[in-house]
Amino acid sequence: MASTFARRLLHLAPIIGALVLLLADARPAQAVMCFQDLDTCYYRAALADGYWGMWIMGLDCELTFVDCTRRAIIGR
Amino acid sequence: MKEGSRAGRDRLARLMDMFRFALSVVGVVVATVASAGEVLKASALTRAGLVPNALIVGRASCLGTSWLLTEEAQLVEISGDGRSVGIHQAVGLKPEERVWGLGCLSDGSLWTLASARTVARLGRNGHIQERIELRVPRVALFGTGERLLFQALPTAEGAPALATSPPRQPESVRAWPGLIARAAGTREQQLTRNLLNCGLGFERWLPCWFPDDMRFSLSDGSASRAIELPALRAAAVDPTAPIWDIALSAANRFWLLAGSRRRLDGRRAARQLSWIVEGAARTVSLEIDPPARLIVAADESRCLLVTTQGSVMEVVVMQ
How big is chain A by its Cα radius of gyration, in Å? Predict the structure, then answer.
């Protein structure tokens, strides 16, 4: 379990790094939060009953993630 | 005598303060490059602090008025001459709703995403007049003619990233040629790499781009072409957001705000504005101070910007 989590973190590290770089000194903590929240949300979605429940919850996770990142990247 | 001297000093200090204020507000700066004998000149049209400091999440321009929408759901109305700014608080949103995007259609109606699954029509006073529920969630919203231009989720790699539909017929979807959804190694990357933005259009033509790209797509809904911007490789330009904003002034001429590497109070902004003729070696550029948040209107002779100080700045082309 721990190694799976570590692999997941390792997997996300370059993406988090890229987004932090993208945001530079603006709100790096927020960028990290976007990914952490997504990870937590995916975990909850994986516990949902049935394929469609998981799919719908997973899509909601992604919508929340997109909302988080677009405020940092597209917002003016 | 001492009191007279103190009063004089006070008056001088006040004058100096006013002078400094005028300098910062007027923001007249030196124009650079003038390949065809043209220069750009900037001046402030309003005082600072009129445009709210909250993050701008939508922008539209139609029927002679420019509109901004902030994440605090303030609808900002900027008159065509740029001298008047009005703020209307959006009314009728549900507690869980967070607005994103703004599109103005040819009939003057204003539309936003109240949530990813709800398109809402805003009155000019900010009140929500109408709600349309969506089966497929949307994550970006703009306006073109009589149709809303949007990005739906999930995106399919290699497919057009944008599509249009009439506001009240969300299932009547047409692909919008131009930007193609990019591939990525992971789902998270695919979501972040395909975030996109669109600028202000001219007639049916609308410029759209991916934030980390140095080219943009110009499309009218049936044809499209990509326009490269090699000038954005300059050292001062932020490579993560080279295109900050674009406004077309004709089918082949546009205003370009370049993202700056320098932050202002931790906030990203644009410090260089260029007026560019596509395909010709004709570019006029200007360092802008205070930096700009975005373009609110543009034509062949001038461009209106909202600055980081919350003022409206005018940049004019001078011969």
Answer: 14
